[in-house]
Amino acid sequence: MFEGIFQPMHLIIILAIALIIFGPGKLPELGKGLGKSIREFKKAMSGEEQDTVKEVQKEITSPDSIAINKDAASQNAVEEKKEHTSQGTSAKQT
Q1: Residues 51 and 69 reside in one and the same domain
Q2: What is the pLDDT of residues 26-54, one digit of tens each?
Q3: Which single residue of 22, 52, 55, 94 could bond 26 by disulfide (Cβ 3.0 to 4.6 Å)?
Q4: Claim to verify: residue 15 and residue 47 sit in the same structural domain
């Protein structure tokens, strides 16, 4: 079915049709955009795991997240003290 689809004559006809539709000024821009998108896709497929690890490390070591973690830790400590003191008072009452 697709045996002869990429023969040189077919490719020339496809190029001629694209030239008529988009014009000679637009074809280089289309080719550049297509090449750039293919490169970015390949880069994303090969480096996807590495990028996510780097993003997580950036989030963990960013100053904002450090401040948030300190706030959360101090909040947890306050809640634990409250629970501990409330358990102590309830034990004294019984």
Answers
A1: no
A2: 888 988 998 999 998 888 887 766 666 67
A3: 22
A4: yes
How many angstroms separate the CA atoms of 71 and 35, rounded? 47
CB crowding 3-31: b at 16 or more within 10 Å, else e: eeeeeeeeeeeeeeeeeeeeeeeeeeeee
- The two structure tokens encoding residue 20: 């008529």
- How many folded domains does the chain comprise? 2
One DSSP character per residue, 10-70 reads HHHHHHHHHHHHH-TTTHHHHHHHHHHHHHHHHHHHHHHHHHHHHHHHHHHHSHHHHHHHH
For residues 39 and 67, membership in a common domain is answered with: no
pTM of the model: 0.38
How far apart, in whole angstroms, are the C-alpha atoms of residue 79 and residue 16?
Answer: 73
Q: What is the DSSP letter of 75?
A: H
Torsion from C-alpha of 62, 67, 71, 72, nearest 10 degrees: 10
Residue 1 falls inside a structural domain: no
